[in-house]
Every structure is written in structure tokens, then in C-alpha cells.
Specification:
The chain has 164 residues and is mostly helical. The chain folds into two domains: 69 residues, Alpha Horseshoe (Serine Threonine Protein Phosphatase 5, Tetratricopeptide repeat), CATH 1.25.40; 93 residues, Serine Threonine Protein Phosphatase 5, Tetratricopeptide repeat (Alpha Horseshoe), CATH 1.25.40. It is built from ten helices and no strands. α7 runs antiparallel to α8. The longest helix is centred in the middle third of the chain and has 14 residues. It is elongated and about 60 Å long. Keywords: Repeat. Pfam families: PPR, PPR_1, PPR_2. This is Pentacotripeptide-repeat region of PRORP domain-containing protein. Belongs to the PPR family. P subfamily.
Length: 164
């Protein structure tokens, strides 16, 4: 049953009918037609993220928290990335802190999304602080996060900092 529910939501998103997809999803949850798992929430949230509907993503996160299925790192990463794309960096950092309070540890995707957002909006000091946090917890650092940080620092005229 859940695969049929998922296909319906995906099909509606493909037709760019965001409101209809969200309403169908909420109806399925409300009527207990199917019990959505993290994967189903992620599909709907990704569809919303691609269309810039961050507040709807946040409302689905809160709906999820009230149900049996609790958000995992993938769900939080979608929420954080959506906030960063909107330039709502304080909200992204609040979600990061919320995750940590729930003992859900950020991964490379989490940090990269926030560092990217911070660099795009000229907040390189916060970006370097987060990068230092990654180093301090011995997180695997990939080329993408280095490139984002170096690019952000260079755009701010901090070439010497970028070389370090």
C-alpha cells in the first residue's frame, strides 16, 4: 500500500502540483491509509525543496515528530538544506542544534549544506567555525567542503585564509 501512496505523491509532484501532493500526503497520514516512513517523508520533502517550499517542509517535519516515525539525519539534512537555499541560515543552525540535542549527529552533508549557505551569504567567519568543528570531531572531509570554503573565502577577499 505504501508504494502506491508514494507513487501517487511522486506523480503529483511530477505534474508540479505541490499543493495537491502535500494535501494527499497529509490526508494519507491523517486517515492512516498508510503509515509513512522516513523514505516517504523524504520523497515529499525533496519535492517541496526543489520548488522552494521551505515552510511546508518544516510543517511536515513537525507532523513527523508528532507521529510514530521520527526524523533521521536524512530528513534533517533536507530541512537544513532548504533553509540554507532560502538564506535563512539562523533557522538552519537552529535545526542543527535541535538535531544535536536529540543525539542525531550531523554528517558531512549537514555541515556542507550549512557551510555552503554561510559562504553564499557572506558569513565566512561562521563557515570557518563550522569547518573547525568538523576538524575537531575528526569528521571525514571531502573535496566539496574544501572547495566551498575556499571559494567563499576567496570571494570575500580572504585569499590568505583560503590558503591555510
Amino acid at each position: 500500500m505504501s508504494r502506491i501512496c508514494l507513487r501517487n505523491c511522486n506523480g503529483i509532484f511530477a505534474e508540479n502540483k505541490v499543493k495537491d501532493a502535500v494535501e494527499l500526503f497529509k490526508k494519507l497520514v491523517r486517515e492512516k491509509t498508510c503509515e509513512p516512513d522516513e523514505f516517504m517523508y523524504a520523497i515529499v520533502m525533496n519535492g517541496l525543496s526543489k520548488r522552494g517550499h521551505t515552510q511546508k517542509i518544516v510543517s511536515l517535519l513537525r507532523l513527523m515528530e508528532q507521529g510514530k516515525t521520527q526524523p533521521d539525519i536524512c530528513i534533517y539534512n533536507i530541512v537544513i538544506d532548504a533553509h540554507c537555499k532560502d538564506g535563512n541560515l539562523d533557522a538552519a543552525i537552529n535545526v542543527l542544534n535541535e538535531m544535536k540535542q536529540k543525539d542525531i549527529y550531523p554528517d558531512i552533508v549537514t555541515y556542507t549544506s550549512i557551510i555552503d549557505g554561510l559562504c553564499k551569504f557572506g558569513q565566512w567567519e561562521k563557515a570557518t567555525t563550522l569547518f573547525s568543528e568538523m576538524v575537531n570531531i575528526h569528521m571525514y572531509l571531502d573535496l566539496r567542503v574544501f572547495n566551498i570554503l575556499i571559494d567563499g573565502l576567496c570571494k570575500e577577499g580572504k585569499v590568505e585564509d583560503a590558503r591555510k
